[in-house]
Amino acid sequence: MPTAARLMGAICLAIVGFVISGMVMPLMPESTDFGYFIPVNIGLGLLAGWFVMGPKAGRGFTAAINNGLTGVFVLILWGVAVQAINEMVRLAMRNRYDNAFEALTASFQIGAEYAWMICTTPIGIALLICSVVSGLLTDFVANRWG
């Protein structure tokens, strides 16, 4: 059921997805073709905010911060997974893998490499600030119009 808290969570995490995508792009090799990188991450932010943060909003200050941290963690997890699978499919289309199990294993390896690339202090600080602000805004909206 649509609620104001779900909408606010979706909007907040979509903005987080946009901001963090812009911070991640310079960390990748220059030859990287980003394609739909930013729109996909914004869409994942919308989904994570709607389904993860929205239903848990309106339970108090501490729960709001935890909700924001959870929502941003899920966004990062989904983002790394989707981008890793996308890269694995791109490589599989070039006949890089001998079988499906090798491709599946490679997607986990690619995801780990991507996660390691984005483990920087500026991104960590931005994620922490964004998660607290997103959680508090979603909680405020849930209490105001919930």
Question: Describe it for me?
Answer:
With 146 residues, the protein is mainly alpha-helical. It has one domain. It has 5 helices and no strands. The chain has helices spanning 4-24, 37-53, 61-92, 100-117, 121-145. The radius of gyration is 17 Å and the shape is elongated. The N and C termini lie close together (12 Å). The model has no long low-confidence stretch (mean pLDDT 96).
Evaluate the radius of gyration: 17 Å
Structural class: mainly alpha
Between the first and last Cα atoms, what is the distance in angstroms?
12 Å
The string of secondary-structure elements, in order, is: HHHHH
Structure characteristics:
mainly alpha; about 150 residues; about 0% strand; 5 helices; about 75% helix
List the helices and strands and how they pair.
Elements: H1 4-24, H2 37-53, H3 61-92, H4 100-117, H5 121-145
What's the short version?
This protein has 146 residues and is mainly α.
